[in-house]
Amino acid sequence: MSNDSAVVELARQLIRRPSVTPDDRGCMELIFEFLGSGEFDEHQIDYGATSNRVLLRERPGRPSLLFAGHTDVVPPGDESAWRFPPFEGRVSDGVLYGRGACDMKGALAAYAVALRDFLRDHPEVDWQLGLLLTSDEEGSGEDGIKRVMQKLKRDQMRIDHCLIGEPTSSRRLGDMIKVGRRGSLNGSLTIYGRQGHIAYTDKADSPIHKAIGVLSEMTQIVWDEGSEDFQPSALQISNIHAGLGVTNVAPGECRIEFNIRYSPKQSAEKIQSRIEGILDSAGIHSDLNWHESGRPFLGKPGGVLRTAVHDAVEAVCGEAPIHSTDGGTSDGRHIAPYGAEVIELGMLNETAHAVNECVPVEDLERLTVIYRGILERMTLRPAQ
Questions:
Q1: Whole-angstrom distance between the N-terminal and C-terminal Cα of the chain?
Q2: What is the pTM of this model?
Q3: DSSP-based three-state secondary structure for 128
Q4: pLDDT bracket for residue 39 (50, 70, 90)
Q5: Sheet holding 253-262, edge to edge
Q6: What DSSP character marks residue 90?
Q7: Torsion angle (degrees, nearest 10) of CA 82, 84, 88, 91
Q8: Rounded CA gap, 39 and 56, in Å?
Q9: Mean pLDDT for the chain?
Q10: What are the pLDDT digits (tens) for 198-222?
């Protein structure tokens, strides 16, 4: 397969734009120009520093299939640690290197090429097709797809099916697709004590001591056993901070950050009540703030997009993919609640966010073929 193929060249052009979140650096305009401005309408929905676009081949009243993706990338870190400059887009020994190669500019390029070539060969297709793009998936996400979906609802612009190009593959291209995700609930807990000299235990009251018992109880909770589709709900502590940086002072407060990834057997409300009950029973002075990143969702078995993705992967890769809901969150959590069928399929995730992020050129080519197969299976058949 040629290193100068359309998908490789487009992916390289995207990588060369250092679009560290939330700066798009013109990536969306590049994709729009590649697709052909005469074929697609461009809806610009920017909020603050975040760029958002809907590139849509409009067919009012007809079923819709959109590819959702993000043009932003995480910072490259120490650039001297990279084999090649992270924003050069170098191809070496059949591998494309660069920040965003697998997460997810490679998938963006693959879908854009697949969509352009498909419509060139099948201009008669009567579907609404396009892309839903944001530059704030790797950041807070507050001004990205979350707000775009709110506006699309107000404008009565419906998405029936949504394919997301997150790097879902584990050991080989197409071995896993995401058919849903667990919910994600973040807790920020501050436990208060009384600052003082540690030699005078009657005058100091360390909040760290109070935290030990509370955290032990929180981490030993068995929330559920999961289900056929979802891993068990689980709590993880991400950060504990206390102290003044010296050895002879008991701090006045201890701050703890934690996250719970939860299956549909739980709800944010049930989890909050359980944790708050532990704090109440301990009788300690504390503050607890919650932020829900997303609720769990699951595409129904036999869904038309789920079936099309499964069959297209199997046809190209020779093996059926695993249908999974594990891993982190994605923008699917903002799209599924509006009634869209959401499935995720993308590159190998081994080097995502890592130094020397890369993808095999062959995988870029094959993913393009898979995406084209999905378009064919979805649109060259009676609408469902």
A1: 36
A2: 0.91
A3: strand
A4: confident
A5: 234-242, 253-262, 183-192, 286-294
A6: -
A7: -130
A8: 8
A9: 95
A10: 999 889 999 999 999 999 999 999 9
